[in-house]
Write a structure and sequence with these properties.
Elements (H helix, E strand, L loop, with lengths): L2 E5 L5 H9 L4 E5 L2 H9 L5 E8 L3 E2 L1 H8 L5 E9 L3 E4 L10 E4 L1 H6 L1 H7 L4 E4 L3 H8 L8 E4 L1 H7 L2 E5 L8 E8 L11 E9 L6 H10 L5 E8 L7 E8 L5 H13 E11 L14 H15 L4
Parallel strand pairs: 1-2, 1-3, 7-8, 7-9
Antiparallel strand pairs: 3-4, 3-11, 5-11, 6-9, 6-10, 12-14, 12-15, 13-14
Length: 306
């Protein structure tokens, strides 16, 4: 049975994602994202599932930084998981009994309307994670009366779901990725995503534009770009890119090669099927046959053929 680490404790949304991305795996909860990924790097787990971005909160910067540094890791799959918060209580607790609520700061923000409307006199306290909040509320004599967490946390800790779907937005999703040590890539599906980290060779006018041009001239569509500080001083950044296509596609391969020529370092993070199965529109002149024909034409020119 493969072993997969994840952002714990038991009952997090990450565990729910792991159950989908690696349903056959033994689940190893980790105290944080860094620990989960290091478990994979040390060979103590076959892979990990970690959050990468949220539709409301944006990028999970710890994940971005961990994938950019340290021993290389490879993204092999992604999942878009709807984030649905529940109000979890000990058996016998009613809404009128709730005076103190425990949950993660992100859940505080995303459930503000519900708590203001349904629990106007309750104090909401920040927890390390939604699962940790549920774990604490389950303890007899806990100072907290309720937790805002994933439904799965209630199953783990014996709590009752007093209310479900309490987030202010019903369309909130978190993107999770399955990460392994480097190895064979998933086969192209025609609806793929590729992720990279690119470090600037030097800071000069137009440096970012030069990188973007490598994608644009080959018809490669970017789906996400994030800048992160390198830690080497103010104004020094590296860039995370997500874009449509698979490294096996000629247009993607040539774009990555172009970035390698002009950058200090390019870290390939993987090519993998898109969770939404969205197939990109290929611009005229940028499909695999177009690149092959152009290369054959150039070979004829170099050989002195008309």
């Amino acid at each position: 049975m493969p072993k997969f680490a994840y952002l714990g404790p038991e009952g997090t949304f990450t565990e729910e994602a792991l159950r989908i991305l690696a349903p056959e795996a033994e689940r190893l909860p980790s105290p944080n994202i860094t620990a989960a990924l290091e478990t994979v790097r040390r060979g103590e787990a076959d892979g990990a599932v970690v959050p990468l971005e949220n539709s409301l909160e944006g990028a999970i910067t710890t994940t971005l930084d961990e994938l950019a540094q340290g021993e290389p890791l490879l993204i092999t799959a992604e999942l878009l998981l709807p984030v649905e918060f529940s109000l979890l209580v000990r058996p016998g607790t009613e809404m009128a009994h709730i005076k103190r609520v425990f949950t993660h700061p992100a859940a505080i923000t995303q459930c503000r309307s519900f708590t203001a409307r349904e629990l106007p006199d309750a104090v909401v306290v920040a927890a390390p994670s939604t699962a940790a909040a549920a774990q604490e509320v389950a303890i007899p004599g806990s100072p907290y009366d309720a937790a805002i967490a994933a439904r799965i946390a209630g199953e783990h800790y014996g709590l009752i779901q007093l209310a479900s779907g309490i987030g202010d937005r019903t369309d909130t999703v978190t993107r999770f990725v399955r990460v392994t040590r480097p190895g064979p890539l998933p086969e192209p599906t025609g609806a793929d995503r590729t992720s990279l980290v690119v470090f600037l060779a030097d800071d000069h006018p137009g440096a970012l534009l030069e990188m973007l041009t490598e994608f644009s001239v080959r018809g490669v569509n970017l789906s996400r770009i994030e800048s992160r500080p390198t830690g080497d001083g103010i104004g020094r950044y590296f860039f995370h890119f997500d874009f449509e296509g698979h490294v096996a596609d000629a247009r993607v391969g040539e774009a990555i090669s172009g970035l390698h020529r002009i950058s200090a370092k390019v870290r390939f993070l993987g090519s993998y099927p898109r969770a939404d199965a969205f197939a990109p529109q290929i611009k005229r002149g940028t499909n695999n046959d177009d690149f092959a024909e152009a290369a054959a034409w150039l070979d004829r020119i170099r050989a002195g053929q008309s």
